[in-house]
Amino acid sequence: MAELVPSPLVLAGTGWTDYGLVDSGHGRKLERYGPYRFIRPEPQALWTPRQPDWRADGEFVPGSDEDGGGRWQFDRPVPRDGWELGWQNVKFIASCTPFRHLGFFPDMAPVWSWMGEQLAGKPDAATLNLFGYTGVGTLALSEYGPVTHVDASKKSVAQARGNAQVSGMAERPVRWIIDDAAKFAAREVRRGKRYDGIILDPPKFGRGPDGEVWRLEEHLPGLVADCRRLLDPDSRFLFLTVYAVRMSSLAIAGLLAEVCADLPGTIEHGDLAVREDGPDGRLLPTAIFARWKNG
Q: Residue 287 in contact with residue 272, Cβ under 8 Å?
């Protein structure tokens, strides 16, 4: 029986050549993305910025309501079609999207590394990336074997395929699927499929390609239960991240503990965070996570 570890963890990422959290505070964060610097809203940065100089190439100014909205303001020219960045062997195109992010989620870097550690020594490991977005995690996983990448957005899947080309990984065994994640997982269960690892990064609210409505609190339990049916005692991991909801990591860990009760291994949970650049960089929390690992 998988053991639930009650004490939360912090899975913190640090900057690398093409990305870094320069400073944070007063509800904002200053980041570097290759040669450019950007300011974005960050409600969890409750403290005071440490650096007086927050000059940036652009800033995302949020809308006036809680549901989002807003726009970019640029002080210097930024390529509207994006620019190339890299993480380890994966290359991808970053750009200033209308949704305030830049085409990938840098706080996922330690998750990608952790998944690689779980798959080490497992030849041709088959993995599933649900809500795969622009495919940086998919391309990282493809080093270990075939990957099924699923996202409801045709544009996101096209960007993911483009990132595979930029990385020189277009020939790797990746299935690019435009589909509703929950429907796809249910079909995989009926097909009797199994995976060595599954990562899912569901939004709070979303719509599938045929107008399917996704509400996290309502639909997450069923999706996680189907993901469990795609695993067996020889599988390596199930990793779940949740953003922008009023929910504890212990809650989603409890969900994994219920559906993975008959599997060996451990269930852990906690915060994803990014550490500011510098020797005394502070940790900025970004999301909660829960994960099952075999061992």
A: yes
- CATH number of the domain residue 287 falls in: 3.40.50.150
Question: With b meaning 16 or more CB within 10 Å and e meaning fewer, what string describes 32-46?
Answer: bbeebbbbbebeebe
**Rg (the chain; Cα; Å):** 19
Least confident of 55-64, 85-94, 161-170: 55-64
Rounded Cα distance between 91 and 136, Å, is: 8
In a domain, 235, yes or no: yes
pLDDT band at 246 (very low <50, low <70, confident <90, very high): confident
Say how far apart CA 232 and CA 76 lie, in whole Å: 52
State both tokens at 208: 């599938």
Number of Cα atoms under 13 Å in the Cβ half of residue 39: 19
Helices 216-229, 181-191: crossing angle, 10 deg rounding: 20
- Residues with Cβ within 8 Å of residue 245, at least 6 apart in sequence: 204, 216, 217
Q: Write down the mean pLDDT value for the chain.
A: 94
Q: Is residue 197 part of a domain?
A: yes
The boundaries of the domain holding residue 185 are 3-14+101-293
